[in-house]
């Protein structure tokens, strides 16, 4: 890899955590990057409103793989509300930064995680959409 990647990025790229998918996920989120065409999918298992387990599959660059791996580590064990607050910046910070031209790669991981949580709420009820104060119509 070219210079500018932190040791943590390289380590997660070489040994990605939580790779794969579940037979019966409670929520699924997929996100694509229209610029480079890379794709990522996140599966979550939920118990007592917490992310009990999480898996990802990424068809993308090394930074996308490292950020996916990191986002699964950050989200595991968190409540759905806490996990929804994980931002692209959090993921990049936990990896000790990404080269500026690679920051867009961290979008995939955080966005796919957020979509998986929203998918869970859509299928099982709950989430901010059910809060009447937050309804816009
Ligand atoms: Fe596509 Fe990194 S180049 S996600």
Q: How many distinct folded domains?
A: 1
Radius of gyration based on Cα positions: 15 Å
What is the H/E order? HEEEHHHH
Helix proportion range? 25-40%
* Weakly predicted, low-confidence segments: none
User: How would you classify the helix and strand content by structural class?
Assistant: alpha+beta
What is the CATH top level name?
Alpha Beta
Q: Quote the beta fraction.
A: 15-25%
**What's the arrangement of strands in the largest beta sheet?**
1-2-3
- The CATH topology is what? Sufe protein. Chain: A
Gross geometry? globular
Counting DSSP H or I runs of 4 or more residues, the number of helices is 5
Bound molecules: FE2/S2 (inorganic) cluster
Distance between the termini: 49 Å
| Mean pLDDT over all positions | 90
Annotated CATH architecture:
Alpha-Beta Complex
Number-wise, the strands total: 3
Question: Major sheet: size, sense and barrel closure?
Answer: 3 strands, antiparallel
